[in-house]
Amino acid sequence: MRTLISTAFISLDGVVEAPGGEPGYRNSGWTFKRVDFLPEAYEIKSREQGEAAALLLGRVSYEAFSPVWPDMAEFPEYRTMPKYVVSTTLAEDDLVTNWGETTILRSLDEVAALKETEGGPIIVHGSAALNRSLSDAGLIDRYHLLVFPLLLGAGKRLFGDTDKDAQKLRLVEHEVYANGIQKNVFDVVR
Length: 190
Hints:
Elements: E1 4-11, H1 30-33, H2 43-51, E2 54-58, H3 59-65, H4 76-80, E3 83-86, E4 102-105, H5 108-115, E5 122-124, H6 128-136, E6 142-148, E7 169-176, E8 182-188
Parallel strand pairs: 1-5, 1-6, 2-3, 2-5, 3-4
Antiparallel strand pairs: 6-8, 7-8
């Protein structure tokens, strides 16, 4: 079974919206505007590229990343890595042609089936709504969270408000950086 990893820049109050910048969000770009940059705090991002075998995105994140990420020097491993987009509305004609193999999944059942295939870890970037659905369905195995010392109030959140049984997490890696960012890696306990 493949491991499904959710990775996120997250404020202390759970907001994941527009960490690098998006139009229309009041605190857009909060990761770089509000907290001093320390390269060591982002080490996990390059490690994720080396460890992941596939990239999973929701439609909105795919549409935001696909015009930009294929040409970015910061994401070389993601260029050739298989990509999966969870969407009920995206068509094959909507996929970019310069970012490697991309498969559209139409349901969480198809994500669950993907997890049952052979291969390495699958990593989820962005995709707030997809993350909430995956979490509620019990499909996420690990969280890579860079927690920023900010309270943003409104915004898209990583975790939903579904009334469900408590889900225990085990902290397997953590570090605190001089700029206040905390790296927390949690395995989901089943």
